[in-house]
Queue: 2 jobs
Job 1
Amino acid sequence: MRRISSSMTNNDIQGNLRLQESRLNRVSNQISSQQRLQSLREDPLAAGHLVRYQSYLGRVQTFEKNAQVLTDRFALTEGYMDQSLELMHRIRELAVTGANGTYTPEDLKNMAEEVDELLKELVQNANATGPDGNSLFAGTNTNRRAFDIEMGAIPGSSEPRISTVRYNGNIEGNKIEVDEGAYLETFSAGNRIFWSEPQQLFSGRDASAFRVPEDSTILIDGKEISLNAGDNVYALVAKINDSGAAVKASVDPISFGLNLQTTDSRQLWMQDISGNVLNDLGLIKDATQLPPYNLGDSVRVSGGSLFDTVIALRDAMLSGDQEAIGGRVLGSLDCAVNNLVTRIAESGAEYERAVNNIERNSLTALNVTNMISREGDLDFTKAVTDMKMMEYVQQATLSTAGRLYSSSLLNYMR
């Protein structure tokens, strides 16, 4: 029951005015922010959907940006690889010219000068850096040069020239997320891209009586392989071949040594993670030596890098060895060209996949934005209409209150 008094009318009017002002302020805030929901309790279901949609949109935009960064990197690396391929075509042309037997040793020395300059250009491409200053072909060791060069005296030359080119990076790749749980794995190891032939390692140590002394783990071409105590060399060969590494293992039928060969043109990467299995087999030195130049002293190696092939061509031209130019060197050059073409094709395929991810994420972002708009955006026409109606009601209330304030309870008791 309400008590009738002179202040009752004023209290009712003030309460209704505050309620109208609150509604008007809410609509005004909606118009200014263009958002229908000003607090979660207004529509809990829509608010829950809106939060999830906004979170997903942020992730999709990140995926799109990741794919765009990848396309930029692929385009940059492919440019250097294309130029290197053109240089290799010119080097092969010089090799074919120098192997036909019609040029004098002096002519071959003149050709060697051009080959030497092309070699320097190849090394420069392999040590290329991106706009961020990181090496493009050093794997994940992006803060260092991909290849180191050593100068030395070369027979037939009066000045020091490049004698050795050594890889200075690693073989690890980067996983870039381009969708929910989906990754693009990029490999930019220079000892795969700038390699000539499949590498073969021949151990000179008899492994017929070898047994793994304890549970151990070895690393072969980036794949960790677990070994059990008591495993013999044949079990080791089977585990390497089943590991998924691009390496084929076998036991030499004569020396009973463990032989390894890569399935494509790349440098073999080996390391003892735990235990000393590879060291005991004579394949690598002790754990203080890091790959890839940790091979044992008794290991015979076949298959070199693209730079080794070009250096061999230059040296053969300087010494006038036309037989080597037309045989071993020319065959190795063909392998280097084929490998470089393969790596360019792989880079192009990865670029196309990254572009497809950009397009898909862009379309997904548009669809999610529509969902966000449906749940959270304001119907501007309806909001303006409601605000005008509330303003009209407020003005009418104030006008009525102005006339009622002159009355009191005494007016009703006369």
Job 2
Amino acid sequence: MHQYLLPLVTQFQQNANAANASGMKAYMLHQFDYFGIKTPLRDSIVHQYLKENSITRTAELEKVIKELWKMDQRELQYAAIDVFKAHKALWKPACVQMIQYCLTHKSWWDTVDGIASDWLGPFFTLFPELTLSVTDTWNQSDNKWLQRSSILFQKNAKQQTDTRLLCKYILRHQKSKEFFIQKAIGWALREYSKSNPDWVKHFVAKNELAPLSKREALKRLNR
């Protein structure tokens, strides 16, 4: 194990709770093991750890993230999301390969959406020259999690949302039967409705979307 990770993993081990772990594993359909550390405590542990420990090289950062990603307990993937987010000064264009690795390994909505929120928006803002080539490739891939990420990467962009891309990526998958894609379409539109409700109303009225996507997109506007 990388030296940087030893104290963090030790703290997680010391705070393990078997009863919580069993419930968490069941909630995630028994796909992942857990220490059983609930979010407030996990956030507190990681926050304090990041205040006291830092990484100084991009290559080392990527190595740490991948090592966390390969570990059994799901809390360590959540910690990896926090660690990478905290080292934005070390981000380089080539980090997109590591980001894609994390999106396509141990994939489920929890980590994919965490990456969308904490990595993708800031990453493509930092390296806008990569936005079109990477997200378009993801959108056209056969991997539903990359497709979902291409639809959700702008969910925090507000007025800076590229509506041309949002429209293009949604319409490619408007007939998808995949739950996580239908949900992503609705979520992306609902978030953008906070900034541009008229655009979202017009888009939903003009285009044939799955009932789930439409319902999620208009949820805030129909209150």
